[in-house]
Design goal:
Layout (H helix, E strand, L loop, with lengths): L2 E5 L5 H10 L3 E5 L3 H10 L3 E2 L3 H5 L4 E4 L4 H8 L5 H4 L5 E4 L5 H14 L2 E4 L2 E2 L1 H7 L2 E6 L2 H11 L3 E8 L3 H29 L4 H8 L7 H12 L8 H18 L4 H15 L10 H6 L2
Parallel strand pairs: 1-2, 1-4, 2-3, 4-5, 5-6, 8-9
Antiparallel strand pairs: 7-8
Helix pairs in contact: 9-11, 9-12, 9-13, 12-13
Length: 289
């Protein structure tokens, strides 16, 4: 069993840290809102620390799962950051969906200090975190990955090393690019079925068994047809992720016309007050033009 720190107890991190504790690891947590850390320690065996630095002291593995690049820098770098508390030989695993540039920045700084660093964004949503069935896409050195993988297996159903530093974040970008197009296509198909006078539920029951099948179709077509969006992965976070994808595409020359268009559709959802709606709320723009 390892001594670990988990920094960031949001929708995903709270449950991921819980799986580590449930598997017997010695877990110390930190959250910007101390009440969340207190609630976690009341539910799980573990301790809470006042700062990321304190949480990381003595930890063999430090996990972070926060909002964006700036949030990661805030909890990792600086006098109260995790790097300030980590000892040589420790490993930082960043589960935040962030930029590949940040991954390289952290890895370079970690190398100077004698730390291993992995970028390891996840996919699977709140349900995946709760059930310990996340997909974890990892970038970094193979020996560091092999050390950290047994801990990531506590909440991951598929934990895979994708390549060198930054490869995990780049893989997550591909994931989000594909989801954006899938959800828009699903919304258009659902709206078409309704306006054509079909029983849309039956439509998806049959086409989900064929070539059109996807996770989004299986898990979201019902709520989309009901106009329910107050749950799931928030539009605000999707726009953050798509912004990262589009910025990276500008650097590497990839063309993302559909992604750019869907990003603007999500902007319209935000303008309608749907910032915290699930990403399937693209349907709203078609059902209520």
């Amino acid at each position: 069993m390892a001594k670990a720190a988990f920094i960031g107890l949001g929708v995903m991190g709270y449950k991921m840290a819980g799986h580590l504790a449930a598997k017997g690891h010695d877990v110390t947590v930190h959250n910007r809102t101390a009440a969340k850390a207190k609630a976690w320690t009341a539910e799980h065996k573990g301790r809470a620390a006042a700062t990321p630095r304190e949480a990381a002291q003595g930890a063999e593995f430090v996990f972070t799962c926060v909002g964006n690049d700036d949030d990661v820098r805030a909890v990792v770098l600086g006098p109260d950051g995790a790097f300030a508390g980590m000892a040589r030989g420790a490993v930082l695993v960043d589960h935040t969906t962030a930029s590949a540039g940040l991954a390289r920045e952290l890895a370079a700084e970690g190398s100077k200090r004698g730390f291993g660093v992995l970028d390891a964004p996840v996919s699977g949503g709140e349900a995946g975190a709760k059930n310990g069935r996340l997909t974890v896409m990892v970038g970094g050195a193979t020996p560091v990955f092999e050390r950290a993988k047994p801990l990531m297996d506590c909440y991951g159903i598929a934990v895979m090393l994708m390549g060198e530093t930054g490869a995990g974040q780049l893989t997550k970008m591909v994931n989000q690019i594909c989801i954006a197009g899938l959800v828009q296509a699903l919304a258009e198909g659902a709206n078409f079925a309704v306006r054509a006078g079909l029983d849309a539920t039956k439509v998806f029951q049959v086409i989900s068994k064929g070539a059109a099948q996807s996770w989004q179709m299986e898990n979201r077509h019902g709520t989309m047809l009901q106009g329910k969006y107050d749950f799931g992965f928030a539009v605000d976070w999707m726009r953050k992720d798509l912004g990262i994808c589009l910025a990276e595409a500008n650097r590497n020359g990839a063309r993302l016309p559909v992604t750019a268009l869907v990003d603007q559709f999500y902007k319209e959802v935000q303008l309608r007050g749907g910032n915290r709606y699930d990403t399937s709320s693209l349907m709203m723009l078609l059902a209520e033009p």
